[in-house]
Amino acid sequence: AHTIVLFTQDLRLHDHPALCAALRSGDTVLPVFVLDPALLRRSARNRVRALPGILTELRGGLRDRGGDLVVRRGDAAAEAAALAKETGADTVHLTEGVTRTAARREERLRGLGLDVVSHPGLTVVPPGDVTPAGGDHYKVFTPYLRAWEAHPWRAVLPAPERVSLPGGVDPGEIPAELDEGRGETAERPLRLGEEAARHRLDAWLESGLAHYADRHDDLPAGATSHLSADLRLGCLSALEAASLARDEPGGAEFVRQLAWRDFHHQVTAAFPDMAVRDYRPRGARWRDDAAALKAWKEGRTGVPVVDAGMRQLLSEGFMHNRARMITAAFLTRTLRIHWRAGADHFAEHLLDGDVADNYGNWQWVAGTGNDTRPNRSFNPLRQARRFDPEGVYVRRYVAELADLPGKAAHTPWDSTAADGDYPPPIASPGS
Ligand code: FAD
C-alpha cells in the first residue's frame, strides 16, 4: 500500500516523526509538498523566495534515499487527495500545526475521505501535552515553564536511511524562482535550507551558546542563534536544538527561549484568532495615524534605536529580539497605533514571521496578550543607552547618524553633526 506524507512547516529529514511513522508502516511513501498560491500570496516574499532552494535540497535528500519529493501547486488538501486517488493511498501523515490554516487543511483532508494522522515535530513539547488543571492551555508563562520543564521529551529521530516511492508518479517541477508574497525583499537575507540550518546549529553550539546568557540582549553584538527562520520553516527541529543545547554551558537560557516559542504555540492552538483579535481585551484605545505608521515602517521616526531596528528588518528580513520589543513598544505604547498594523508589517518582512510567535509577542508587548504586567513602562531612549551603550547598532543601520560618536548617536537632536536628512522625533523618545 501507499502512504502520503504531506510536508508543511517541517522541511527537513532529521527528526521528522511523520515521515518516520509513514516509513514504519511498511508502505511505500509519497512525500508531497504543495505550493498553495493563496498561502504564498499572504506570506512574506522574503520567505517565499527561499522556498525553491529549500525544496530542491529536500528533494535531493529524498532522492539520495531512493525516494522523491512530489511537488504540486494548488490547494494542499485537494492536491493530496488527487495524489491519493492516483496511487491508491488512503492515509496522510503530517506534522501537527496550531494555526487556523493547519486546522482547515486537516479538516479538508478528512472531508475528502483521507485518514489523517498528525504527529509531533513543530515544538519541543507538543501543544496539548502540558495543560493546567481545569483549563485547556496555560495563559501565563512562568507556570507553563514549570510544567514544561517537568515534562519528558520524546527521543530525537535520525534522518531515514531509505525511502521507497510508488512508481509512475510525476514528481512535478520545483519552480526555479518564486517571487510572490507580501512586503519588499531584503538585500541580505540568511541562507536557508536543512543543511544551512544544521551548520548554523553546529556553529552556535560550538561558539555562541556559552555566551548566550550574558550577551543575548546586546544589540550590536547580535549574539543570538539566528535559528528562528530555520525553526519557522522546520528546516531544523526545535526538539533537536533543545536536546543538543540543554546540558551545555548557556543551554538553560537558550532552552528557555524555545519554551517561549512552545508557550506561544500552545496559546495559539487554543486561541487561533491570535493574529486578528485581542487575546485579553483590556479596552485599549488606538489612534489612526497613517503618517506616523509610515514613518515607523520606513525607519524614519527620528528615534534612532527605533529606526535602526526597522531598517534592520527591511535590509535583513530579521530583527534583534530587543529591537523587536523596542520598536513594537514604540508603535503601540508611545504612538498608540494598533498592534495589528505593526505585527502585519513584521509578518510581511520577517523570514521567521509566524502566527504564534509574531502575533503572540506583539500582543504581549501591546498589553493585550499574556503579559502579567500589561502596563509596564518602556522608554526607548533608556533601552537604547542600556543595550547599545556606544551607539554601534544605531550607526550600523542609520547612515545619517554615522558621524555622531558613541552614545551621542541616540540623541541627534542634541547635536549639529547629524545628517540634515534625519528627521526630528515624531514622538517623545523618553529621557
Ligand atoms: P535566540 O535568542 O537565539 O532564541 C532561540 C529561539 O528561541 C528563537 O530562534 C525562537 O525560535 C525562540 N524564541 C526566542 N524568543 C522568543 C520569543 N519571545 N517568543 C517566541 N519564541 C522565541 N520570533 C519568531 O520566531 N517569529 C516571529 O514572527 C517573531 N516575532 C516577534 C515579534 C515581536 C514584537 C517580538 C518582541 C518578538 C518576536 N519573536 C519572533 C521572538 C524573537 O524576537 C525571535 O525569535 C528572535 O529574535 C529570533 O532570533 P534568534 O533565533 O537569534 O533568537
From TrEMBL:
Positions of FAD binding: Y212, T224, S225, H226, L227, S228, F254, D352, G353, D354
Top-level taxon of the source organism: Bacteria
Species of origin: Nocardiopsis flavescens
Cofactor note: Binds 1 FAD per subunit.
Protein name: Deoxyribodipyrimidine photo-lyase
Phylogenetic placement of the source organism: Bacteria, Bacillati, Actinomycetota, Actinomycetes, Streptosporangiales
Stretch list, region Disordered: 407-431
Biological processes, Gene Ontology terms: nucleobase-containing compound metabolic process; response to light stimulus; response to stress
Biased composition (Pro residues): 422-431
Cofactor(s) essential for the protein: FAD
